[in-house]
Amino acid sequence: MKILFVCYANLDRSPTAEHIYANRPGLEVKSAGVGWCAQQPVTAALLQWADVVLCMEEGQKQYIVEDFENFISGKIIDSLDIKDVYPRMHPKLVEIITKKVDAWLSEYQANMK
């Protein structure tokens, strides 16, 4: 499964998620941001690469749905509801991301059976 993690600036949350899941068997991961200042901006190519787009907030999901509608057909796009309050790789951020992404993956796998 190819997962694109998305936050606003691609500085803290999505790169942290990418780092956490980089070596998880069965997953390929990348990260990007929707903001004008994003280190790695969301692009049509990244969205086409991904099977799943996990956004940190609902607003980022809406941005992708509205601005990239021609590139997301058949993609799963979801929001994890993780606020931008911790710096990159902060232990609490790692804990929150791991808990939410693992739960999301478990639910996804259960629904695929």
Structure description:
The chain has 113 residues and is of the alpha/beta class. The protein has a single domain, classed as Response regulator (Rossmann fold). Helices cover 42% and strands 18% of the residues. A 4-stranded parallel beta sheet has the order 2-1-3-4. Strand 1, helix 1 and strand 2 form a beta-alpha-beta unit. It is globular, with a radius of gyration of 13 Å.
As an assembly, this protein is: single chain
Structural category: alpha/beta
Q: What is the makeup of the main sheet? A: 4 strands, parallel
**Total beta-strand segments:** 4
Q: Secondary-structure element sequence?
A: EHEHEHEH
Overall pLDDT metric: 96
CATH homologous group name? Response regulator
The number of domains: 1
Largest sheet strand order: 2-1-3-4
* Distance N to C terminus: 15 Å
Rounded Rg: 13 Å
In the CATH hierarchy, what is the architecture at level 2?
3-Layer(aba) Sandwich
Taking pLDDT < 50 over at least 5 consecutive residues as the criterion, the unreliable ranges are none
Q: Any idea of the CATH topology?
A: Rossmann fold
Q: Helicity range of the residues?
A: 40-55%
Counted by DSSP, the helix tally is: 4
CATH classification, class level: Alpha Beta
Shape: globular
Question: What proportion strand?
Answer: 15-25%
